[in-house]
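User: Study the shape:
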Amino acid sequence: MTIDYYSDYFEIDRLNNKKGKEVIGILKKHFARYGLPDCVFSDNGPPFNSHEFRHFSNQYEFTHTTSSPRFPQSNGKVENAIKTAKRLMVKSHKDTKDPYLALLDWRNTPSEGLDSSPSQRMFGRRGRTLLPSASRLLKPDIQTDVVGNKRIQKEKQRSYYNRSAKDKTELAKGDIVRIKPFKNGKEWTKAKVDEKCNIRSYNVTTEDGSTYQRNRRHLILTKEPMIEQSELDLPTQTAADRTDNQAQPIAIDNQVDDNVIEHQEPKPTIRTSERIRSRPKHLQDYVCTVVR
């Protein structure tokens, strides 16, 4: 899915695979149709983390920015568009209608708080649908208040979100943190902060030397000491050291001290009990014989 941040207009494409050649080919079609963007924002999965996509961004001269790993909220625009597309497809399937017509109607529906549809913001005019409409409504009409309306809308969303949200303290270079595990049963991994790579993302290095990019929400500051990889590696021993540290022969005396034998305690003997056993009262009316 590809979405335009300014107009909220999105395209849905079917991929045969997730390889770089397939995804780059789809993006080239969109760029030829709508123009080259200044910035492309994506997640960290393949193929966006490949050398092929990096070469593609340099060739088409756009900045490629990635979201925080394991934090879909940082890429909320696309996540919201995916929910909208799934909802349209599910409703079309239940109603046995054409999903493309449902997508066309959505693109021509005015967005809440913006007083214009994605098609109007993207192309400067409404698109013709199966709904009856006047000819004057299909004439070009450039929207000039989109940026101001979107800013007011985001400020409203921010005020509602900040009612219960609190800012986390920023981490400095060299701070020791624990990384949240994403599988149940695993412990938080100790790491050291290398640098701040985004607004709320940090590059951290674990004790085994692995480097990760994590959101601030997945890092907890700790006062534990950090053990570097160099300290974990044991020093190798040279041939000269092995020769000097060879074990010396030990003389073994086979003579046994007589005093040790005299002070040894004898082993206890196992014997049966000699106490007198009385016959139970409930057996007094019976004749009992013991068979040996």
Observations:
- The domain at 2-130+141-161 is CATH 3.30.420.10 (Nucleotidyltransferase; domain 5).
